Structures
1.
Amino acid sequence: MTQANAGTQPSNPLLVVGSVALDTVETSQGKRDEILGGAASFSCYAASFFAPTRLVGVVGTDFPVAHEDLLRAHGIDLGGLERVPGRTFRWAGRYAADFNTRTTLDTQLNVFEAFKPKLPAAWSETPFVFLANIDPVLQLEVLTQVKRPRFSACDTMNFWISGKRAELLRVLERVDMILLNDEEARQLSGHSSLPAAAKAISALGPKAVVIKRGDAGALLFQGDDVFAAPAFPLDNVVDPTGAGDSFAGGFMGHLARTGDTSPASVRSALVAGTVLASFCVEDFSLDRFRTLDAAAIRARIAAFASLVGFEAPRI
Amino acid sequence: MTQANAGTQPSNPLLVVGSVALDTVETSQGKRDEILGGAASFSCYAASFFAPTRLVGVVGTDFPVAHEDLLRAHGIDLGGLERVPGRTFRWAGRYAADFNTRTTLDTQLNVFEAFKPKLPAAWSETPFVFLANIDPVLQLEVLTQVKRPRFSACDTMNFWISGKRAELLRVLERVDMILLNDEEARQLSGHSSLPAAAKAISALGPKAVVIKRGDAGALLFQGDDVFAAPAFPLDNVVDPTGAGDSFAGGFMGHLARTGDTSPASVRSALVAGTVLASFCVEDFSLDRFRTLDAAAIRARIAAFASLVGFEAPRI
């Protein structure tokens, strides 16, 4: 955990539950077969630049040991990653030339279908928890196994909003923050205006609501406090898969690193998430992360600050 | 021109050429018939909060004098607004519930069809010039009538990009900045990546390229310098008509006000444009502007600074 503990500030462990997958991805920049993917893989790797990270998930007997080694080598604790008989979760998709439209070609749940998250006993007091986009029933099972985390967040998707709404609402009652995209926010709230949607979602439980808008950036609502961050503009997008998960991972990893859950700190964490997402999309799978270090992250944080900085107009 | 000259900084006149129209608009918030619209109306009004503004355009004999009075009362010089026999330009459109999709129901060029912009002789040395979205042939005629402006900018649209490309390219060789939306930027450049599109467009002439993205904000490219500004999130959008024109007007008005065309000043001006656009959409036509004053603009500039402010994450 050299990367995770390199900082000078206190750093608290972060627990992430979600999918670990083998993805087949086609973009205008190329095609890759059965590469490492899954929300937990991206989130954990992004988070582990900032904080000790614990992964809860499941893979099949066909999951390459090299992928486990990659995650472990970056300090991710795989004590909650089960390996069970059967095939690993698989996803296949294709992106349009502008990367804004994605077509899912295949989804095979495989070992994920019967997944019941089981946390190692020693993880039950993990202070920071991220429930990536999985069945809200499983998200609840994780929340039941951790004792009052200091800060918990969840992701979700249209499939659960329409199919398991009651269970999702029980999750929302218990988490401090939700991250979802603009269409999901509209679907969950019934409001087309994003500020109105965020207000309605916050009334369901989470005091912070993050609306992810892809290359249009993100909005963070904390009561009446609103923060807007553009995406980092890139010339060389290769594969957007995992961008939202890397955003959430960098976000939660930075929160865990500082241990500060004040509104100002949540804003800073969102910028960390934006920066990690910008690296993620520069290559397939987790490939860009493999050569990433704190200095490069620091340089892009500075570039982001320059991207959005201005002298206030006068009148 | 009390508003325009209220500041303490130097203020240079801004000339705007574009449409003055009667709009029929339907949004989820209501329907209005034959209200004051047109790119020049919105741009001039927004600009005139910052700088002395000169309007070049044409209306028919049916154009209500009350509309002229409204513009003149805000300090806009109508010395270039012709009134000719015939009917005023009319546009009718309807917006989807989320305001992101607009259907044009009717366009009647009317007196605009035979429009030839003629600048009053005294305006030929106007230092700041904004060519709103009109036929590039007319934009060129205006550029021919002003002697080396200190800073000129143009808007355009898909119709001219495909139909009058050669003429548009001649405009681009002569302006300092172009403002256009993301789809137009892709169409004009042939690049789907916005940074790549901006670079290609800048190579055609304008040293600054502004890509307007509606509620996703705006991107400003000045060589290698990139600025990203989110839109100001609003609960109460009433009518998006004129938002892009008000953005351009506030932008160019602020540039004219300061007289400073450095990259940092262009960034500040973009924020002024963002703020003026955010007021524009809060009511139909120019109605929100009618009750707007410098104090309210100043307050929203402060709110915008708070919206995007953050402490840099640490790693």
2.
Amino acid sequence: MELLKQRIRRDGIVKGTDVLKVDSFLNHQMDVALFEEIGKEFQRRFAGCGVNKILTIEASGIGIACVTAQFFHCPVIFAKKSQTKNIAGEVYTTKVESFTHGKVYDVIVSKQFLSARDRILIIDDFLANGAALEGLIDLVDQAGAALVGAGIVIEKAFQPGGDRIRGQGIRVESLARVQSMSEETGVEFVD
Amino acid sequence: MELLKQRIRRDGIVKGTDVLKVDSFLNHQMDVALFEEIGKEFQRRFAGCGVNKILTIEASGIGIACVTAQFFHCPVIFAKKSQTKNIAGEVYTTKVESFTHGKVYDVIVSKQFLSARDRILIIDDFLANGAALEGLIDLVDQAGAALVGAGIVIEKAFQPGGDRIRGQGIRVESLARVQSMSEETGVEFVD
């Protein structure tokens, strides 16, 4: 998605060779006009797939998921990160390791809102090592729901998550795939 | 806002006399079509106030804030809950006590995204004891930004936060003000 790549080139800040800060428009300050274009593009790519619910994970996926859901005319559920013990039976639970924060979270979704009748599109801001996305996929599997695919805003294609998850036969659509980055030369995209 | 009150009456679940669960449409599963109506109503109430940025707090405020921002044509910033020590100088920090989780969080916003040039509308899903809202107001004050007011989806008017904050001269617009609730009689609204 060219508009997004331009924005990353212009406003993204590269630290070292693997940190890309996009908090001026994506995940701290949020440019909702850009989110509308992102939502339209996800809708274009997953049109006709029968998506009836979007699943994301708190916190930075929520804004993108909600704006995207307007184009699918469906609700959003966000999986919650929890460090508290949950009541068995009421929620689907999975574990997600955050490499950024050096923690393992329990990630939960209420069983009420995810069922075998659902056709789920997962939306998230970043895909790198794939831990968060695999956690969300596990929640969809536990519910017996159909997974239509995952829509990712920025994929760090030099990290293993995207290839591993595509290797499981899951459709992953990333709007900007970063091949490499450096503080000197900036961001290089795949293609 | 009548549509919202109807939805709360229909789908809200009252536990005891002070817990109102609205996680089927507001803060776990999110009905973005309802959020559009909420956003329009906030825009109607704060039209002409020169809002150039919306401030909210993770996680459940983010979806409502993003959809609302589409009607104001402005970006959103979400304040982050952090239990890690932050680098002095780069962020505004305040402390917020969560009564639900029995914890005190540091809540932070990058100084880059909040400044004396901004006219801020705060958006959040709930107002009860007022701790989260007062934290957000403190962040706006630290930045020297102008606070236009706060737009709240559901206010528990029987808890002290709303009155205390209005008593400081701050404009608080709540779309549904709950006067009392019980498992037997459901939710009663102010007015």
